[in-house]
Fold this sequence. Notes:
By secondary structure, the protein is an alpha+beta fold. The chain has helices spanning 3-36, 46-49, 54-62, 65-76, 93-99, 127-137, 143-170, 179-195, 202-205, 212-228, 230-233, 248-262, 265-291, 299-303, 316-347, 349-365, 374-377, 381-393, 427-431, 434-437, 447-451, 454-463, 477-494, and strands at residues 79-83, 86-89, 106-107, 175-178, 403-404, 410-412, 415-417, 422-424, 495-499, 527-530, 534-537, 540-545.
Amino acid sequence: MSLAQVLDLASEHLALSLGLTVLASLASWAVYNAFFSPLADVPGPLSARLGLGSWMSNRALSYDMGWKLAEQHDKHGAAVRVSRNMVSLVDPSVIGEIYRYGGKFEKTSFYSYFRADKPSLMSILDNHSHALMRRAESPAYTMTLLVDLEEHVDSCLDDLVANFDKAIVAGKGKGTVDMGEMMQLLAMDVIGELAFGGTFGLCKAGKDTQGFLPMLEAFVDVCCLCGECSFLYYPSQSADSSCAGTQPWAGLPLIAFCNWKVGAQGPQALASKSSKAVKDRLEQIKKAYETGDEPRRDMLSKLVMAKNADGSPYSIRQIEVAASSILGAGSDTTAVTMRALLYFIVRDPAVYAKVMREIENAFDSGLLSLPIKYSDGTKLSYFQSCLKETLRLHPAVPWTLPRVVPKEGAVLAGRYYAPGTQVAMSPFVFHRRTEAFGPDTAVFRPERWLEATEEEKKVMERNLITFGSGSRVCIGKNISLMEITKVLPTLLWKYRFSFTPRNQPNSPHKLPGRAVDGTLDDKEPWHVKSQWFAVQHDYWVDVEERGDS
Ligand code: HEM
């Protein structure tokens, strides 16, 4: 046979050989993952056991993380393999192991997709660098500063209330408002006040004039998808990797997608607002030194004073990244929780009546007055137990909070996991397990927090992982609790709320009702999408003046 004939034959069969090679590689990859991987014995969906990595990506695309993962745990028990190398766990004993202070489990590179050109508290992976950054930025989150932050929440709340009043006038005594949007505008404006030197003016305008909402939504979509897509994921395992930093190739789809989905308006508005705010604040501080005036006290005033571990001051870019990450971490989460708390209260007439009795008594006795102080709102014990129960049943972040098993390996809930294995817990799934909160976990029952003994309360507090747990626990927890404790009692005191009926002419609803546990039901006032955040869409509420406020 001549050389030309050999080449002819080879090219004829090249496509076939290539196809067979790909098929054989995929088959051996799947066989290895299903039967020989160290996680081969952990049950889970077929695609995860075959190592195809598509199960988590599907959750990111289908917005059904919470209930799909809960289904898997109902079917398979306390440990579920959700991807080639990740196991979701729901055993209470592992919280302290995986997330504890001073522990060795680090965040997985999933979080690196939350990073801009510099790491933030949320996206930094290695524990040592995180501890240094947390120390540098913690003055922006102290309890003593919290009191100063209250007046900024009050001013945003005044702007929000004006929208409700306008809707009531327009509706001749009964307004209909998009509570989903209203709560988001408020939460964003509050972050503007706290971390960007002033409100974004969204509540005043009554709408998202800057395009922030679609921007944040697209950003989280891309983070979840890239973070779970194996072809983008595996090359970025190193601790300092980042889509927009050390791996610009991986950042390109992110930026392209954001621009395609929302245009550049949101990111640009945010970038120019943050750099102007930082420059203005540095100028103010300089002037304050000269004139002896006290500069405005907020989170930004603390961030501009932050120092790196070597004593050098934070660069302007570091301050901007810290402020922007506060917007990403603190606005959606707080808005989701405020919407859910109002939902759980209004949905049950007995709960609504009890909350109102408590608030009315507090106003009558002089415990509360407008503007409501956080320290007074914390004394509303029934309201506070409603808040706890909301944090349990509708945690703003239902996604798994994944960590890497350290080089020593780890025994978790009686099974050994090899170094490098990823282990995770979803607050949504865990909070609904009987091993975490007893037999009636699916029921909204605020009384569970009031009836519990001190010992039982301690266990429930430990099992409540809405804000994460241990060394990477949410640093903004108290800020959001302060905001919620001021806003909700004020709105409940001023207005009477009911869900806008879905089956009526001119109903504003556009999506089918879907509860946080995935149940499709037309009685639901909203449509929940469960991804990194459990966001409520299409949430319409009728609002009337209460009269005696
Ligand atoms: C109800 C409201 C909130 C919820 C449910 C929530 C939830 C969480 C969770 C679950 C984490 C841990 C993520 C993980 O371990 O993977 C976290 C971290 C974080 N949160 Fe929040 N958050 C809320 C409000 C806020 C607010 C208002 C701010 C800022 C003012 C904020 C800033 C942060 C930051 C900076 C981190 C990273 C902390 C670190 O790793 O040191 N959060 N949050």
